[in-house]
Here is the input.
Amino acid sequence: MSSATTTPATAEKLPREHYLNATYGIRSWLLTTDHKRIALLYLISVTFFFFIGGLFAALIRIHLLTPGGYLVTPETYNKLFTMHGVAMIFFFLIPSIPAVLGNFLIPIMIGAKDLAFPKINLLSWYIYLLGGAFVLYSFATGGLDTGWTFYTPLSSIYSNSAVTPAVLGIFINGFSSILTGLNFIVTVHTMRAPGMTWLRLPLFVWAHYATSLIFILGTPVIAITLLLAGLERMFHFGFFNPAYGGDPILFQHLFWFYSHPAVYIMILPAMGVISEIIPTFARKPIFGYDFIAASSIGIAVIGFIVWAHHMFLTGQSTYSAVAFSFLTFLVAIPSAVKVFNWTSTLYKGSIAYDTPMLYGLGFIGLFTIGGLTGLFLACLGLDIHLHDTYFVVAHFHYIMVGGAIMGYLGGIHFWWPKITGRLYPEFLARVAAIVLFIGFNLTFFPQFILGYLGMPRRYHDYPPEYQVLNVMSTAGASILALGYLLPMVYLTWSMRYGKVAGKNPWPATGLEWTTDSPPLTENFHETPVVDWEVYDFEHRPELGLKGAIGKKPAPAHGDD
Amino acid sequence: MQSQLPLYPEQASNFAPQVDNLLLFIVTICLVFAVGICAAVIYFFFRYQRRNPDEIGVPIHGDLRLELTWIVLPFFLLMAMFGWGAVIYVDYRHTPTDTLDVYVIGKQWMWKLQQPNGRREINELHVPLGRNVRLIMASEDVIHDFSVPAFRVKMDVVPGHYNTMWFRPTKPGKYHFFCSQYCGTNHAVMGGWVTVMEPGDYATWLSGNTTGDPIAVGQQLFNNLACSTCHQADGKGRGPSYLGLYGSKVKLADGSTVTADDNYIRESILQPNAKIVAGYQPVMPSFQGQVTEDQIAALTAYIKSLKDQPAPGKPAAGDSATGMK
Here is the structure.
């Protein structure tokens, strides 16, 4: 281990050489094979798609202020929610944590110089861009109005919008996910530093391992399904349209076979982030490490056999519905195990309320609500009433926004000092986290009630009795928008003007915190050797904390 | 409807109180867990606040008994929710035998409905109080979904086959119905009103303004489409007889048996070779694209009206009363 990182932050300087200043020029970025630079390329591109998707969301919420619709025509409204879903799911949520934080951190966390296939990693980004270009072309030339679910025969025959480029774009983008997943799995298997055993892997790595399994097993199915829908649209092959001898329900089976596990692609990495943040800011080992690691794999495996719970009311057989409802209830257990373990980790901790921890605690609350409302929908009798209403919309936004995006932002803040070498303004960041939490709940909680009252989703127009709740939701969305803009501004500011962070500002126990901030292109000066257990503060005197065994004398450490 | 901010829609069918009770059960369990977890997080957050910047927490790595408890206990609660939900769903998917049948056809972006006596409605459905009603639903284009929040029921309306749903209205009044499955441009306005009437009022309403008995229409179609050339009443034509067919067990060429229900008749018209009746050749042409959903419904109504006729070579099927005239 190198020397303790406990000198006051103001005296610190950025390391003389690091991955950001190793080479200069646009070519050095566009042709880079450094996983950290590729992560930053992804950071810029997913943020771009997040703002496109967010803009559509803002227009949707403004439109729904009044029962008759406030802003746009029905055609435009349908395009807005479709493009919101496509941009957010396929081009923001799915790549966000894996391709940005996973890319940046997995090699450093396991003590490797890079991913196993650095050039393929760069290729993934270019494939993502190509897929994104097709989808943007679809948005710009007529838009897309099929819903992000592309149900046939609406998408394959009846829609008059630019469906073909969009499905091709998503088909292409699928290869990006597959290659990233492959890269992660091979890297974790073959490139761990000496001493980095499987049970010393950070839970962030376990979560990404599980996610990668879904990437490589699930993504080919959605890719081929959308391709079939595209072929039916272009050449009238009879796959899904009954008029040509196809079966529209077959599309739904294939679509959800991937798209349900895709929900776990979005949430598992966020759970990985939370599993890093909570022990760091409670300064104690995570409670039930093996159960959290195993539950990630459990979620990935059971997640593959619950897809038909999206189809309880398509006329599927009663027996099949009962079986899928049962399996869906089972998948709740590994998720609950994680929540219980995170909560228990706080017990007798030394808890700080730095920004990442605020996101971490917010995540526990929002994910709990999102997960529990999933039970309402898994429950057959209730799903008859709730299916395709705003209850579903609220439920999956609690998982995807309350869970996945809160996890993403928490992770961005937590590792920002490592990525840029500088700290963000702590006070503003705390304010933004709280604004986001309030705005989020005000936006989406009323939608649970709207759903139980029966308001169907994807409606540009609604009966007047639903207005009050819609206005509340729109008000919340404006607060939420402010909450997203704040970090954009202060994080950008901090890249140049933030306080220098030092190697390990929190301090945290992972291998990534033992190297420079920002790290060298090769990540470590010399190959690290891991001789400590994961999340162990007790036997790590070099962190300079009281209560550690074999304590070194060290000046006081400021915690923000 | 009721107040400015109601929490649940009106309860107007047999399923509504069942679903609401189940909701209450699940909400209670979930509230216990959500409040418990949030309270623990908040309590720990303040109780174990870091007092000294160098302080570390007490290293606790886990507890097997706790882990097992929070795996096993939720499992039983989940199974209770699963079981209760499944009971309601199975009931919902098993239609009683004494139903009043209404044909529903969804198309972009309207609903066409037809009462048993042939009275047609558009975006309106009238049903009698206290009677089991079955909707037999088909789509002419994309997938739709017929949803009545006050009844707590919905079902997708899928092109290519019939889906059915049932309910028993329990409260007179006018209730929204919606299309719940996104179906294109005017999805949001593809809805209307269900009117639940006292049985007497319903009978009066039903007798006014009929537009053609579907059985008569079906009989005419049966001749016009030349079905009768092959499907002769005595079963001696190239196709099997249609007398006493509806609801009976049909023996197929591959040795299996199917029940001749709405979907069987529909499939036999559109994909005649899917199921070949034992003793006949697969020679019937497909009528895919040549008959509309309305016409299929009329043909089915006609065949259904003959369900109590003796099938050739078989004794009479009995004289049980039916909802059909």
Observations:
- The CA atoms of residues 11 and 150 of chain B lie 6 Å apart.
- The domain at 214-305 of chain B is CATH 1.10.760.10 (Cytochrome Bc1 Complex; Chain D, domain 2).
- Chain B touches chain A through 91 residues (CB under 8 Å).
